[in-house]
Amino acid sequence: MGAIRVSGDDRFVEFGPPGRRRQLRLHDYAGIYAEPGLYERIFIDELDMRSSYEVAAIFGRTLRQLERDPADQYVLDLGAGNGVGGAALRALGVGTVIAVDNEPAAAVAAARDRPGVYEDYVVADLAGPHEGLRAHRFTAIVALSAIGIGHVPPDALGRALGLLDPGGVYAFAVTPTLLPGSRDEAGRASGYPAFLEELLANSTELARRTYVHRKLGDGSDEEAVAFVGSF
Q1: Contacts of 20 (CB under 8 A, 6+ apart)
Q2: CA-CA-CA-CA torsion sign (91, 95, 100, 105)
Q3: Which among 33, 68, 110, 218 is least buried, having the fewest CB atoms inside 10 angstroms?
Q4: Strand runs (DSSP E) across the chain, as ranges?
């Protein structure tokens, strides 16, 4: 596959052997998922993305504190991608994991690279109604790396959380610009600060952790804040 190079403005990735180098937009997920292992090479190896592991870890610690057996959990992996997060949930011992993502290539990549991780993979518009998921009785909704501007909008997260029964647990992470009280113009325009303020006011926050989500193309760190809560 050759060396991976992410542009300093965090917009493009270049890869491939000498003489046959290719360039893709960094968030051209269909193109990236089409190349086996490329997503991991870019985001895990090159950019040291930690969210899948950090959110899974804080979710697992919370289950232990609640004395809930991971094997009994029925979890929706929101914005599942090619299954990196689903594999992290399975490593915790989670019994059932259902995936949803709006990118068809993600479902193909997950089946190719991590067969058996998901009992079902639903390809659907994350911002639309989750009718295909209503037959499931989820004990937890987890988004392992997909929350943020241009990814999962707040109304999509809200609809997903609406699938939880009372006592259900949520776990996800956002960038600090999306937190309640944010002064970041783009963050406020996303609707996330107001959404999170309401969510945290109407649920019980069980855990919170600030960590480095990944490195940006210029080498700087992008922070994230993980939340776990319950209704």
Answers
A1: none
A2: positive
A3: 218
A4: 5-6, 12-15, 22-25, 74-78, 96-101, 120-123, 138-142, 164-174, 204-215, 221-230
Is the distance from CB of 51 to CB of 144 less than 8 angstroms?
Answer: yes
- pLDDT tens digits, one per residue of 7-49: 999 999 999 998 899 999 999 999 999 999 999 999 999 999 9
Q: Which residues pair with 205 in a beta bridge?
A: 229
Express each pLDDT in 70-113 by its tens digit. 999 999 999 999 999 999 999 999 999 999 999 999 999 999 99
Alpha-carbon span 52 to 18, nearest angstrom: 32
Residue whose structure tokens are 């998901």: 118
> What does the pLDDT look like over 112-154, one tens digit per residue?
999 999 999 999 887 676 677 888 889 999 999 867 777 888 9
Question: How far is it, in rounded angstroms, from Cα 69 to Cα 63?
Answer: 7
- Quick one: angle between helices 192-201 and 154-161, nearest 10? 20
Give the CB-side neighbour count of residue 38, counting CA atoms within 13 A.
Answer: 26
Amino acid at 79: G
Token look-up 């050759």 returns 2
Contact (CB, 8 A) for 49 and 43: yes
- Gap between the Cα atoms of 132 and 130, Å rounded: 6
Measured distance CA(47)–CA(38) in Å, rounded: 12
121 near 69, Cβ under 8 Å?
no
The single residue listed with the structure tokens 């058996």 is 116
